[in-house]
Each structure stands twice: as C-alpha cells, then as structure tokens.
Amino acid sequence: MDLQSILSKLFANAHAVGIEGVFQFAFGQDRAFWAEVSDSSRVGAGRHNTPDVTIEVAERDFLGIMSGTVNVEELFANARLKITGNMGLATLLPQIIDSARRGGMASKVAMNQRYPTPARISERISATQPIRREVPRIRRADLPAEQFRRDYLPHGLPVVLSDALQDWPLFTMGRQASLEHFAELQGITRHGDYVKKTFSTDRDFRSTSMADFIASLDNPVKPGETPPYMGNNIVPEKLLALIRFPEYFERSRFIAPRIWIGPKGTLTPLHRDDTDNIFAQVWGQKSFILAAPHHRPALGTWSTSPEGGLDGCDFNPDAPDYQSFPDARQVSFLRVLLEAGDLLFLPEGWFHQVESVSTSLSVNFWVNSGRGW
C-alpha cells in the first residue's frame, strides 16, 4: 500500500475525535504528503501551502508506527521524528493513530469541550469508608507486595512508600551524573499560562531538548510567570534501564511510564485519572493535595470526553471559593509531601493537585490493576 493510501486510512475518522487542521508529513527532501482534517478528511501529495503542523519522519519508521511495532512518542523522544508548527495539534497524533486502529465510525467529540462527569464505582467504595485525615507513610521494606495487595489495593487506599528508589540508577547517580543519559533526547514542554488551560490543546507546547531543559531548570523566571514544565512525556527507551517497575503489579499491567521535569512552582490543578497510579519522586520535592473519589459533586468536576476518564475540577483547594462551591467545605483534603526516593500509590478516582516544591524529576506508572470492583 502506498503512503498516500495509508495516510487516507489514518485520517479517515480523525474528525470524530474533534481534530481540525492540516498535518504535513515529510519523508525526505522531495517526498511529502498532507492530510486536511475538518468535518471530513482529504489527503494530497506534495507540500501544503499552509500546514498547521509538519512531521518529519523516515518512511520505515512511519510504517512501523502504522503496523504497531514502533511507538510514535518513542520516535519523538529519540529525535527520529521531528515536529514543527502547532505542537498542541501534534500531541493529538497518538490519539489519531489509536482511533484509526480501532476502526469504525465514532460520534464526533469537540476538543477542549467540557462534559458532565459520570459516576464511578470507586466513588461508591470510598463513600462507605471512614474519613481519612492523612496518608500513611511506610518504608518500602516494611510493606511487602502481598501486604500491599491485601491492605491497600483492593480498597483503593493511597499510601506513601519511603526509601523506595534505592535500586534505581536514575536516583542513585544523582542529577549531574545522569545528564549524559538525556543527551539527544527531546520532550514536549508547556509554557505560558498552562494552568488555566489544563487538559486543553490550546496550551503553548514546544519541542525541547531534554538536556537543555534540565540545564535551564535553575534559571529564574520573571515575577508572575508560570515556569515551563516538561510534563507527561514518555520515558524514552534509553532511560528505561535507569528505572525499576514497582513490584506491586505484573509488568504486563503497566502502561508506558511517563516522566515529569520542572523547576519550583510548576502546577497541575485538581483532577483525577482513570487508572491506578504509582508516582515516583526521583529529584526534589512535590506536594500533593488529595480528595477521595466520592467528593466529585462538591468539586466542580468536569470531563474531557462524554465517557469521562480524565476529569478536571474548578475548585482550587489552595484558594477555596466556598461561595461557588459550598459543599467543598465538607471535603477532607489530604496533604502529602513527596521527598526524593518516595513512591505514592494513588488509586483510580482520587482527586489530586500537584505542585513542585523544588526542582523536580518524577516518573509515574499508570497501571491497569485489574481491581475486581
């Protein structure tokens, strides 16, 4: 099958996930194709006059992406796929690929639209449990996997495991010694007021060298500015040997781990994910503010899709507006400070707001835990 036909299949249903724009693919100096996506899609050969985003990739790697043998984020991290133009639109490429692989016609979803949040089973579970005032902190050596699976996992209860990264080369080698491992890797950074545009493709995304970004972490930002943040990037294969998958789940249940790098002051507002999460603090400190799943109605919760999954909140526990959200007075917020070397088990459904207290590098593992609720 020729490249133009492959691109036609790839973008045939892209509008169904709310994507609009012109994607240009350059497979070499003189070989390019474009896909124009709106209420329908059309694909053409050659260079487009006004592409929104241009993706440069070798034909072999592109075919690997389409066959499912190559990860598009991994290619980007290793600079084998280069992106120019609208990075916010480019970040939707994995979603386009996933939609094409699933096939079929889906109802159109408006990007950056807020939807009512469906209830979850985890809400019913947490509503029956005693009110918690703090998250327990236990040394990793004192909480074997069997006990974790008995006391925390089935009940969806958060816990901090301290002294948990001693077998991680990325942790034990320190920041300066590890910089050589970041050479030639790249990531996507968030700039500007990305807090108010949380989970929106309208954020200012940029392609950035990981090593250069880490080297800039101690540079001061202007008063009132939000510092840039390299958040939610895939852990490149080159770095996988420097981390360890937590022993609490089978390896097959883990989703590809993500890396988060930023200076003091980076912030992700209150939200919740749709899977269990194990969050590892490698450098620096991060503060978490948690709320149990059943507090959803009190927090001004909204979803990024009609089915829910990634749910944001309008309530800010650091600047509470009880006039707009009176029921939030009844929410028991738990504050957790993660130190370097800590692991946090954050069960599905738990709301969390995250802020870097100092220059920080973290790795998180979303996991399909198979909890039998």
Précis, in short:
With 373 residues, the chain is of the alpha+beta class.
Features:
373 residues; alpha+beta; Nonspecific Lipid-transfer Protein, Chain A; Jelly Rolls; 2 domains; seven-stranded mixed sheet; six-stranded antiparallel sheet; 11 helices; 19% helix; globular
Topology summary:
Layout: H1 3-11, E1 21-28, E2 31-37, E3 41-45, E4 53-57, H2 59-67, H3 72-77, E5 81-85, H4 87-90, H5 93-102, H6 121-127, E6 137-139, H7 145-151, E7 159-162, H8 169-172, H9 174-178, E8 186-191, E9 204-209, H10 210-215, E10 230-234, H11 237-240, E11 258-262, E12 267-272, E13 276-283, E14 286-291, E15 301-303, E16 311-313, E17 334-338, E18 343-346, E19 351-356, E20 360-367
Parallel strand pairs: 1-4, 6-7
Antiparallel strand pairs: 1-2, 2-3, 4-5, 7-18, 8-9, 10-11, 11-20, 12-16, 12-19, 13-18, 13-20, 14-17, 14-19, 15-16
Report on this model:
- With 373 residues, the protein is an alpha+beta fold.
- The protein folds into 2 domains: 3-102, SCP2 sterol-binding domain (Nonspecific Lipid-transfer Protein, Chain A), CATH 3.30.1050.10; 121-367, Sandwich (Jelly Rolls).
- Helix content is 19%, strand content 29%.
- It contains 11 helices and 20 strands.
- The strands form 4 sheets. A 7-stranded mixed beta sheet has the order 6-7-18-13-20-11-10.
- The model has no long low-confidence stretch (mean pLDDT 92).
